[in-house]
Amino acid sequence: METDNLSAVLHSQGDLRLEQRPVPEPGPNEVLLQMHSVGICGSDVHYWQHGRIGDYVVTKPMVLGHEASGRVVKVGSAVEHLKVGDRVAVEPGVPREMDEFFKSGRYNLSPTIFFCATPPDDGNLCRYYKHSANFCYKLPENVTFEEGALIEPLSVGIHACRRAGVALGSTMLICGAGNKPLFLFLCSAVTEQYLFPERLAMAKDLGADFPLLVKRGNGPQDLAKNVEGMLGAQPHITIECTGVESSIQTAIYATRPGGVVVLVGLGSEMATVPLLNAAVREVDIRGVFRYCNTWPMAIAMLASGKVNVKPLVTHRFPLEQAVQAFETTRQGQGVKVMLKCDRNDQNP
């Protein structure tokens, strides 16, 4: 067994280091993975730059990374569905107890859940990582490691669409064109708004029917009218991915009576929104926290070829260049930056 377990470890705000850690030993219900591809998420960068996200504070060194795939190299004694050599995608959230949320199928809401790269839990941006076997999903032969890693952000889109009740014939407004909304377009999308033209161009390539360029100074109610004019009607569903107060306001004003607004983006703790407008028009406002029960569907979508996430990977770095990769993400270059953790296999 290799002893090289190079890991990207965040020690404190702004202090990201590459260092060796012991290769972990899997428990009875765990597998040891040789990590292959790990995407950098905005939350990873936020922890690096700020040392916290809300109430989650980095108080001790933490391995980053949660968008991941790898190869099984060791199997726990109780694991039967996986074997050495299997290629798997990693679902980063694992319930620690069988509480009411676990039993109701909404384990993502469990207050004690383990989640990769969320303090105090380590992530998987390293050479070797152990994880619950039940939350490692075997990849079909025609699905690459990078596609397996991108199941995590794709799952955000799937879960948001489920929360919104997206169905055939739904018209949908997506606010934003960062990574999350771009993955949403692969699930279902018709209209989109953002400040940066290059992101709008990719959104259109991925399936947005009516890209709308937002200019600074555009008011929420005016934007809502523009959306209605482009669609010919107000959308049934709006998925808000920025967390910006003015965008949330636009989402509510734009959605038709009886429709649904889903909040994916995380912004300030408090926001001023037209709640009365939503109430008298029976516009439901629903939150999204990560995802649950999405990996099987995402794998099926990728394996069928109906969803193509490959164009979203715009930059690749070996694990040894993790700090440079994080800086690339921080500067907003490209879309998805992927780190390659296997020295002997840098392929997608």
How do the strands and helices of this protein lay out in sequence?
Elements: E1 6-12, E2 15-20, E3 30-39, H1 42-50, E4 52-53, E5 56-57, E6 62-63, E7 67-75, E8 87-90, E9 93-94, H2 100-103, E10 114-115, E11 128-132, E12 136-138, H3 145-149, H4 151-164, E13 172-175, H5 179-187, E14 191-194, H6 197-206, E15 210-213, H7 220-231, E16 237-240, H8 245-254, E17 260-263, H9 275-280, E18 284-287, H10 295-304, E19 313-318, H11 322-330, E20 336-340
Parallel strand pairs: 13-14, 13-16, 14-15, 16-17, 17-18, 19-20
Antiparallel strand pairs: 1-2, 1-6, 3-7, 3-11, 3-20, 4-5, 7-8, 8-12, 9-10
Helix pairs in contact: 4-5, 4-10, 7-8
Radius of gyration: 20 Å
CATH class membership of the largest domain = Alpha Beta
β content, as a range? 25-35%
Number of helices: 11
Largest β-sheet summary: 7 strands, mixed
> Helicity, in percent?
25-40%
How many E-type strands? 20
What is the 3D form?
Answer: globular
Q: How many domains in all?
A: 2
Which second-level CATH architecture of the largest domain applies? Alpha-Beta Complex
Cofactor: Zn(2+)
GO biological process, one term: sorbitol catabolic process
Organism: Myripristis murdjan
GO molecular function, one term: zinc ion binding
